[in-house]
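Inverse folding, one chain.
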């Protein structure tokens, strides 16, 4: 069979399609033939030590992802090289492993047609979403906006979300690190706001309205930084400015429009500029107000716990540890604690 041939991939046949979680449940070091329908998340051109070109191709669905290597002497090299990211492919392959990670050997790959993509449930099985209902998350989010008591501060937050429209509801919170899926930014922000409400009584030095507003707005620039319906990538503005600067611009414009007093506006802007926590992580400045320190710590907490939650959701029953999580710089113990 020729990889990338124009033949019908046979979506309507009786072949049982395996998800990424199914594949990772199989015994390691096994060689099991399988068929899957997967999203092409990323194609990266690389060069080996002997100067031979090859591609690293990341494929995935809502249950997880894996990478395969395509060398230049394989027909798959040209197939994936010319295939746009966010394409959906049907692959026939055998399980294989590289450095203890799943890295199947693909024997055939076909792009799905528009008609096949329209089949009920297909895209839903490919696009990862939070475990919590996005409508419930949005209702909670609106409740947090309504809970801001300082009028001009509340008006500032409302003006920002009026400016960006509904993009925030579906945006991811990252490309790969944490909450990197549809509605991920909404989930991350609501989780942070819930943590904020729980922790505020412990820290009376923190202005509650300012901290809550800062949390709701801290990542707002990501609605401009990221683009793509199926696969997230950085936009032109995202590459040239980044979400911290983009968020600062949105907040400043809204604050001036709402006639927020200069001191509060400056403090709110500082939360946006410093929420990344460290300069090496993208913060424009280090957190230097009680509210900014508070927000940056909650952001870091939920980002890391978001990685933990996702790894646990995607864990297979056969594995005691997850693959190494770059954001945690460790593999996570995913085996459940015995009662």
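Residues assigned per position:
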């Amino acid at each position: 069979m020729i990889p990338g041939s124009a033949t019908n991939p046979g979506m309507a046949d009786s072949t049982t399609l395996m998800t990424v979680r199914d594949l990772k449940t199989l015994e390691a070091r096994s060689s099991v033939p399988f068929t899957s329908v997967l999203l092409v998340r990323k194609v990266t051109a690389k060069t080996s030590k002997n100067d031979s070109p090859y591609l690293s191709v990341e494929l995935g669905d809502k249950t997880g992802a894996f990478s395969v290597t395509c060398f230049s002497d394989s027909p798959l090299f040209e197939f994936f090289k010319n295939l746009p990211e966010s394409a959906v492919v049907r692959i026939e392959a055998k399980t294989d492993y590289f450095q203890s990670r799943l890295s199947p050997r693909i024997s055939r790959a076909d792009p799905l047609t528009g008609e096949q993509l329209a089949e009920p449930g297909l895209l839903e099985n490919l696009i990862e979403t939070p475990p919590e209902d996005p409508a419930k998350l949005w209702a909670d989010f609106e409740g947090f906006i309504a809970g801001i008591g300082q009028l001009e501060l509340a008006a500032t937050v409302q003006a920002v979300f009026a400016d960006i429209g509904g993009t925030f509801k579906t945006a991811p919170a990252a490309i790969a690190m944490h909450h990197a899926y549809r509605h991920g930014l909404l989930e991350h922000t609501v989780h942070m706001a819930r943590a904020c409400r729980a922790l505020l009584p412990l820290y009376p030095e923190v202005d509650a309205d300012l901290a809550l507003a800062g949390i709701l707005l801290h990542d707002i620039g990501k609605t401009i930084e990221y683009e793509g319906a199926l696969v997230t990538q950085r936009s032109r503005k995202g590459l040239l400015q980044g979400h911290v600067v983009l968020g600062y611009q949105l907040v400043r414009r809204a604050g001036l429009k709402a006639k927020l007093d200069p001191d509060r506006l400056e403090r709110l802007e500082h939360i946006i500029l410093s929420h990344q926590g460290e300069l090496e992580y993208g913060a424009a400045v280090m957190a230097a107000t009680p509210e900014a320190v508070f927000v940056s710590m909650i952001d870091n907490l939920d980002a890391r716990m978001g990685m933990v939650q996702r790894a646990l959701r995607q864990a297979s029953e056969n594995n005691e540890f997850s693959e190494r999580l770059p954001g945690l710089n460790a593999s996570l113990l995913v085996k459940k604690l015995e009662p």
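Confidence is low (pLDDT under 50) at residues 1-14. The domain at 134-312 is CATH 1.10.3210 (Hypothetical protein af1432).
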